[in-house]
Design a protein that fits this description.
By secondary structure, the protein is an alpha/beta fold. It has one domain: Response regulator (Rossmann fold), CATH 3.40.50.2300. Strands 2-1-3-4-5 form a five-stranded parallel beta sheet, sandwiched between helices. Helix 2 packs parallel to helix 3. The longest helix is centred in the last third of the chain and has 15 residues. 26% of the residues are buried. GO terms for molecular function: DNA binding. It comes from Metabacillus sediminilitoris. One of its GO terms (biological process) is phosphorelay signal transduction system.
């Protein structure tokens, strides 16, 4: 099963997503800020990286830029409460494969992950 990194600073949401994805059989690593996530990305290989847009140390957008600058082509989903089209456009132009606004249903998240990972095969 796929290995996913979830970088989310909101603990309750992170726990909900981790529990949901583990129940679906995914292997999940978690990070509570951008720096922790970046260190995990440098040390591990992932099938999908899920980033929160607003995190401490490095924002999701800064982290996305760093990942793509490192020539890492891992699929990336950005989660954000910011639903403005300009934010979504910037995220996608920077290299994210998908943008999902918060709040979201756990089932919708699973559907999107299955779509993204299915495209990667």
């Amino acid at each position: 099963m796929a290995k996913i990194l979830l970088a989310e600073d909101e603990e309750v949401l992170r726990m909900l997503v981790v529990d949901t994805l583990e129940d679906e059989g995914y292997k999940i690593d978690e990070a509570c800020d951008g720096k922790e996530a970046y260190n995990l990305i440098k040390e591990n290989s992932y099938d999908l990286i899920i980033l929160d847009y607003m995190m401490p140390v490095y924002t999701g957008l800064e982290l996305l830029e760093m990942i793509r600058h490192d020539n890492n082509q891992t699929r990336i989903m950005m989660l954000s409460a910011k639903s403005q089209k300009s934010v979504q456009q910037k995220v996608l132009e920077t290299g994210a494969d998908y943008f999902m606004t918060k709040p979201f249903s756990p089932m919708k998240l699973i559907e999107r992950i299955e779509e993204i990972l299915g495209e990667a095969e």
